């Protein structure tokens, strides 16, 4: 359904998917972006705990698609994106970590994991109306072609199109039952992740900067934030992700027990003793990674003016969030 030239589009979520949509749609409609947290980035998350700082969501991004590569080329040239990890390993249950080949398509953000989304917003979203600390609670149909969005502040706003970029299970809660893509949405399955942040008063000598365990293990991935570009860290600051399958299985377990199992396994696999950390925090991601994507670049109910996009449409990676958003933006631009 065509919605006219001055369509109002509301985008829910300020991660890579939401900001890409905002950037690509701002010249074609009045775009508002609603984000529940204080800033942009979503699961490309960064947390300061002086004197430490951690990327506690995505650790790095991969660039495989030509369109994504073209979009990011200026940031590679400026040094915002730098090849990382440089010394990756695979953890072994019985031996020292084993060196793994350095991938050519893998990059970390200089400064912080949310720097890319912030840069895209600052440079390419000048016409977008951003609302932070605004959680969308409900979408109510007003007329055939218009929606009312209720937020946690008790405020409401109108939109012709609503695009959800929040994880699939949360999108399913927001969308009305009769939305045409309910079944496809239900197909996408996401997994959890426990993330432990460890800060030490000294530098731990390490000949690796990133290491992989397995999905069904208390240790799935470890990154040394000090060895990422422009972090200014004089002490070791580790981000330790439990495996996704293991996190799912232990999601409701007592957090102290989860922590103990992760610490014990970290010591076994790396020799790093988390008991010696001067800073320890645990974060629990309910929806971290898409194990089973929806299998379509985006979901759209054209008649109702409702859509959904995100990494979970194509497979849980940052690049897939971008690709999902750009495919949906092209489609909506054709329709409005
Ligand atoms: C622990 C972890 C490790 C990962 N590692 C990697 C990696 O190494 N490489 C990689 O490519 N990918 C990785 N990923 C996946 C990557 O982070 C995601 O693919 C990508 O960030 C998804 O972006 P998005 O914009 O689709 O969703 P999100 O980043 O989740 O953005 C959704 C946004 O919506 C907001 N929101 C939610 N509900 C509401 C609401 N009701 N109202 C308003 N706002 C709302 C959220 O606050 C969030 O900012 C990892 C993810 C996690 C959690």
Please render the helix and strand layout as text.
Blueprint lengths: L7 E5 L3 H10 L4 E5 L11 E4 L2 E4 L5 E2 L3 H13 L2 E3 L4 E3 L7 E2 L6 E4 L5 H10 L4 E3 L4 E8 L2 E6 L4 E4 L1 E4 L3 H7 L7 H6 L1 E11 L10 E3 L8 E4 L12 E5 L2 H6 L5 H16 L8 E14 L6 E3 L4 E3 L2 H4 L3 H18 L1
Parallel strand pairs: 1-2, 1-14, 2-10, 7-16, 14-21
Antiparallel strand pairs: 3-4, 5-9, 6-9, 7-8, 11-12, 12-13, 15-18, 15-19, 16-17, 17-18, 20-21
The site of flavin-adenine dinucleotide has 38 residues, from helix 1, strand 5, strand 15, strand 19 and helix 9.
Characterization of this structure:
With 336 residues, this protein is of the alpha+beta class. It folds into two domains: 1-44 and 113-188 and 293-336, FAD/NAD(P)-binding domain (3-Layer(bba) Sandwich); 88-103 and 189-292, Alpha-Beta Complex (Polyamine Oxidase, Chain A, domain 2), CATH 3.90.660.10. The chain has helices at 16-25, 66-78, 115-124, 168-174, 182-187, 244-249, 255-270, 311-314, 318-335, and strands spanning 8-12, 30-34, 46-49, 52-55, 61-62, 81-83, 88-90, 98-99, 106-109, 129-131, 136-143, 146-151, 156-159, 161-164, 189-199, 210-212, 221-224, 237-241, 279-292, 299-301, 306-308. Strands 8-7-16-17-18-15-19 form a seven-stranded mixed β-sheet. Strands 10-2-1-14-21-20 form a six-stranded mixed β-sheet. Strands 5-9-6 form a three-stranded antiparallel β-sheet. The mean pLDDT is 95. The protein binds flavin-adenine dinucleotide. Residues 12-18, 34-37, 42-44, 57-62, 135-136, 165-167, 170, 193, 195, 241, 285, 288-289, 310-311, 316-318, 321 line the site of flavin-adenine dinucleotide (FAD).
């Amino acid at each position: 359904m065509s919605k006219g030239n001055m369509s109002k589009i509301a985008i829910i979520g300020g991660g890579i998917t939401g900001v890409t949509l905002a950037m690509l749609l701002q010249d074609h409609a009045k775009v508002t972006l609603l984000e529940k947290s204080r800033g942009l980035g979503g699961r490309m998350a960064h947390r300061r705990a002086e004197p430490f700082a951690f990327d506690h969501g995505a650790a790095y991004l991969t660039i495989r698609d030509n369109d994504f590569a073209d979009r990011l080329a200026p940031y590679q040239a400026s040094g915002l994106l730098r090849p990382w990890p440089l010394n990756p390993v695979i953890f072994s249950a019985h031996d020292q970590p084993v060196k793994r080949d350095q991938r050519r398509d893998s990059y970390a953000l200089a400064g912080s994991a949310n720097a890319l989304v912030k840069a895209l917003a600052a440079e390419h979203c000048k016409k977008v109306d951003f609302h932070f600390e605004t959680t969308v609670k409900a979408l109510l149909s007003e007329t055939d072609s218009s929606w009312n969005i209720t937020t946690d502040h008790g405020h409401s706003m109108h939109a012709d199109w609503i695009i959800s970029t929040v994880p699939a299970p949360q999108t399913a809660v927001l969308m009305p039952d009769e939305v045409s893509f309910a079944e496809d949405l239900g197909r996408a399955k996401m997994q959890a992740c426990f993330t432990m942040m460890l800060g030490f008063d000294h530098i731990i000598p390490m000949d690796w900067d990133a290491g992989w365990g397995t999905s069904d293990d208390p240790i799935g991935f470890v990154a040394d934030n000090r060895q990422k570009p422009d972090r200014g860290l004089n002490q070791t600051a580790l981000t330790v992700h439990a495996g996704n399958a293991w996190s799912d299985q232990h999601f409701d377990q007592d957090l102290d027990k989860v922590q103990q199992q992760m610490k014990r396994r970290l010591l076994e696999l790396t020799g790093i003793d988390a008991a010696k950390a001067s800073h320890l925090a645990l974060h629990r991601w309910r929806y971290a990674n898409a194990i089973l994507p929806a299998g379509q670049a985006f979901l759209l109910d054209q008649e109702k003016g409702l859509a959904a996009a995100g990494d979970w449409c194509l497979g849980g990676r940052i690049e897939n969030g971008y690709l999902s958003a750009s495919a949906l933006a092209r489609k909506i631009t054709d329709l409005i």
